[in-house]
Backbone:
């Protein structure tokens, strides 16, 4: 075996993938995008993994409506290809159904891998190349966030609460306020939890600006007059003691 012979062995697969290119070929079986050491696989409204039935697909610059499903790359051991490294990422599910599919758990879902490996097996058979073993990393469930940063708003006010896992964000929503945003966060143990992170008050105090020093006053006057030598003159005055 050698790198050259291994690439030559896979050449019929990549050649067929280029013929069945998702970007240029309107044929329903054209769902591939070939590279040099593997290819990508896309799905269409008529041919897609399970749970993708309601996903909206658009052609964009491609020959037909489609969405990305995953990729296949040669897995090498020395100068020999020993397996097909496959990976799926259901971006479309996370984008169109964010309430159901968290971005942390859209990689290598079982139904996506099943669909993709079926398409890869078909492509190898059509190219006359024996299909190789598949290699993939099993998707693990994302650990639940330990705390949630919750944002509450009213018509003229707002506040936030770091809600601990055992509490409900609705319990911290004061009369007249509504829950606006929730963000899962980790490592919040050093922050105050389950308390309103804003001073309790009936009205918003007017901010008092600090007294302006002479340099600030000179700058504002110079800016209105379009002069740019005010700072040099002020510095000379401070050195000479003029004006004291």
Residues:
């Amino acid at each position: 075996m050698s790198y050259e012979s291994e690439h030559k062995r896979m050449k019929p697969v990549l050649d067929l993938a280029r013929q069945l290119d998702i970007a240029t070929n309107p044929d329903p079986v054209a769902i591939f995008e070939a590279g040099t050491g593997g290819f990508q696989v896309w799905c269409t409204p008529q041919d897609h993994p399970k749970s993708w039935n309601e996903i909206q697909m658009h052609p964009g610059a491609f020959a037909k409506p489609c969405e990305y499903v995953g990729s296949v790359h040669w897995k090498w051991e020395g100068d020999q290809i020993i397996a097909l490294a496959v990976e799926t990422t259901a971006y479309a599910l996370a984008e169109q159904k964010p309430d159901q599919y968290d971005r942390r758990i859209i990689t290598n879902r079982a139904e996506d891998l099943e669909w993709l490996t079926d398409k890869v097996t078909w492509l190898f058979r059509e190219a006359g190349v024996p299909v190789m073993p598949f290699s993939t990393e099993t998707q693990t469930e994302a650990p639940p966030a330990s705390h949630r940063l919750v944002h509450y708003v009213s018509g003229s006010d707002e506040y936030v609460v770091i809600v601990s896992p055992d509490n409900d964000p609705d319990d911290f929503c004061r009369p007249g306020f509504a829950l606006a945003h929730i963000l899962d966060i980790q490592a919040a143990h050093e922050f105050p939890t389950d308390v309103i992170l804003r001073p309790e008050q009936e009205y918003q105090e007017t901010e008092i600006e600090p007294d302006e020093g002479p340099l600030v006053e000179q700058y504002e006057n110079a800016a209105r007059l379009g002069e740019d030598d005010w700072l040099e003159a002020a510095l000379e005055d401070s050195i000479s003691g003029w004006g004291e």
Confidence is low (pLDDT under 50) at residues 201-210. The two ends are 90 Å apart (CA to CA). The chain has five helices and eight strands. The CA atoms of residues 199 and 207 lie 14 Å apart.
